[in-house]
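Milestone 3.1: sequence recovery, worked example.
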């Protein structure tokens, strides 16, 4: 049963890139959102938020993953996140979708050009959330478009 969304975190992860997507996933309460890190030691985001993982990368269950979210961060550019890329690859190989807020992590996980992944620019948090909403089939398609217009352009749905 694919009921889990894994949010893969590490020291310096870019929390703002994925915050809106995580909010929309948690709002209907249909998904088991799990914060996953290399160890159970709290990590600190790039903006200084301390996050305590729910489980370790070794404990995640790829067969339960509907989606894995990989936030950006400078550690990707420094090549220090092979373990995160390997976890994303395991989830993808088990049939889950991988969502990344930048292409560097997809390339490191050897997912570029494969099915069941998507990414958005690190400057496109609304587009990223839109992709996550579609991947998890949250809301009906017309509501998704209304949501996008509201968050991207501040234009509410016309009744």
């Amino acid at each position: 049963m694919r009921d889990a969304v894994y949010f893969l975190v590490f020291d310096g992860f870019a929390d703002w890139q994925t915050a809106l997507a995580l909010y929309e996933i948690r709002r209907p309460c249909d998904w088991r959102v799990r914060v996953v890190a290399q160890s159970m030691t709290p990590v600190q985001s790039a903006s200084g938020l301390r996050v305590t993982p729910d489980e370790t990368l070794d404990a995640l269950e790829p067969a339960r993953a509907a989606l894995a979210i990989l936030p950006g961060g400078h550690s990707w550019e420094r090549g220090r996140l092979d373990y995160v890329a390997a976890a994303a690859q395991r989830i993808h190989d088990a049939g889950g979708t991988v969502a990344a807020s930048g292409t560097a992590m997809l390339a490191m996980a050897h997912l570029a050009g494969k099915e069941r992944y998507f990414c958005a620019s690190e400057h496109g948090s609304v587009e990223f959330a839109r992709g996550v909403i579609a991947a998890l089939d949250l809301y009906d398609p017309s509501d998704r478009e209304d949501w996008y217009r509201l968050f991207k352009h501040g234009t509410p749905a016309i009744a």
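The longest helix spans residues 141-153. The chain has a mean pLDDT of 87.
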